[in-house]
Amino acid sequence: MLPAHAEINDPGRDPQPSYQTTTRPSSYPSAYNSSRSTVLTGDSGYQDSLRPEAKAAASSHLTATPLNNSSLLTKDSSNNPNDLPRPINTDLGALSINGSAAATNAGHSSALTSPNSNLGLDRLQLNSPQQHSAAFVGSTVATALPTTTITTATSTTGTEPFIPHSMQSVEMVSADATLTERQQLDQQRQQLEQQKQQQYLLQQQQQQQQQQQQQQQQQQQAALQAQQQELLRQQQAQQQQQQQQQQQQQAARLAQLSQQHSQIQQQQPQPQQPQQQQVPEVRHVPQQTTARRKFNLNDFHIHRTLGTGSFGRVHLVQSRFNSRFYAMKVLKKSEVVRLKQVEHTNNEKMILERVEHPFLINLWGTFQDVRNLYMVMDYVVGGELFSVLRRSQRFPEHVARFYTCEVLLALEYLHSHAVIYRDLKPENLLLDSLGHIKITDFGFAKHVPQNITWTLCGTPDYLAPEIIQSKGYGKAVDWWSMGVLMFEMCAGFPPFFDEDHIKLYGKIMAGKVKYPAHFQPALKDLLKRLLTADLTKRYGNLKGGANDIKRHPWFEGVDWDLVYSRRIEAPYRPTIRGEGDTSNFDDYPEDAEQYGVYPDGEEDALGTYFPGF
């Protein structure tokens, strides 16, 4: 039974058409008409099923728009289903079917509508029960018509199908497969071009970023170089300013020394023969400021030996010009070079020429011959403090305090001139006729502007831990040695001692000190602050310097100005029988060598090692 109304499908909502290309067979099977819908064919079965008026309308008004410009195939009006279709010549316009009727498969229903029908249908629609699309059979291609359907419609008067008098053209939409492929290729090409464009833009951005980074690095390097140059310029300016200040200070010092020189000229040895007058070199005035003649062996008479060392000895000598007594230190050049003491010897002369202090030995002059070096110094008649300490076994604390005060002021003065003494011990402390000390033997002293050196030297019992460790050390080693000296003066023995030097160094590194019971608490406290391996806690090496030691309770009541001016009476005054008395010195065997008596023509092969003598 036909539906009550005709269904109109919107072409815009139709699915995308499908296309299929096949090869036309030589003949179609007999079941073709019963299995698939055939559109616009010449089968008469369709017309026979219509009413007469419908047949007339179908033959006179049924038109269709062809899909392409090819010839359409149609069947004859015969009833033989096996007959092959024959071509119908037509143009690209509307297709008019005359004398034939459209045929449908058995069981299919068809409806043709007209613009004038009461159904109001304006398009021809084709539907089959199996939803098959009508097909034009061409010479080589069968084209699907997804947008065209045939629906059934029921007339207003009955159930018989109503055939309209006219039909509009059937719109059939198709597309070529190659067009879709081209579109896809175009899309791919566009995508590739877009990718290339994006890659190009990305490369441009990366290049710009690299250029910016290079520019920034260049700017940073330029700024850093400018800062370094400015810093270097400032450092150079500071160095120049410091040099100018030092030059001014030296000029002022030289002026002061010149005044002192005029005052002490009468104390210098004077020659007995004016025509051969020789002025001894005066230690108080730097050598470069005054033109002076050197001493020689003919200026002195050698009496006896006062002490001996590894590569020389000290003699008591008397000037042939003023009959005053001096101590002459004689060093063998060959031994100095062999024992690698050239630098120490030159340092001793240089430092003694530059320093001047009430508690330091005075150097009057130096000279040399082809074998020996000679240094003329004050003769300190009281002998060594070591000898007094051995006779006394130990000092009371007030006696030890007196000598410690004078040693402290001498070390403070040396450190202010960037000099490290490095050999403090009782043997190197001499007593003058009034009992005040004079520090002698500057063989290990060194001028250290940077306050650091690495040489392993000194007396084993008095070595600081940092010297034993072969680390860089500075002025703090002298404050350690002063602590050892204080301990030995008060106890009669040093805090660390052993005949085996390796064991001795181990005890020093361990830092364990046993204090005698008679040590007062203030003395023990000061010794603990001096005999510490921690340089950040050692007194004298802190921010306060030597003042930290002076303010310690053990020195309570000490007037340091009186100490410096030597107006405090010494606790021990040596016995002196005359100016050239040597009773306070030990006896030593004399050397058989006669100084200055050498074979004729002997060359001075080592003189270049000691240019300042």
From TrEMBL:
Enzyme class: transferase
Region (Disordered): 1-91, 253-285
Catalysis: reaction(s): L-seryl-[protein] + ATP = O-phospho-L-seryl-[protein] + ADP + H(+); L-threonyl-[protein] + ATP = O-phospho-L-threonyl-[protein] + ADP + H(+)
UniProt cross-references to Gene3D superfamilies, sorted A to Z: Phosphorylase Kinase, domain 1 (3.30.200.20), Transferase(Phosphotransferase) domain 1 (1.10.510.10)
Boundaries of every Protein kinase domain copy: 300-555
PROSITE patterns: AGC_KINASE_CTER, PROTEIN_KINASE_ATP, PROTEIN_KINASE_DOM, PROTEIN_KINASE_ST
Claim: Ribonucleoprotein is one of the keywords in the record: no
Record's protein name: cAMP-dependent protein kinase
Lineage: Eukaryota, Fungi, Fungi incertae sedis, Mucoromycota, Mortierellomycotina
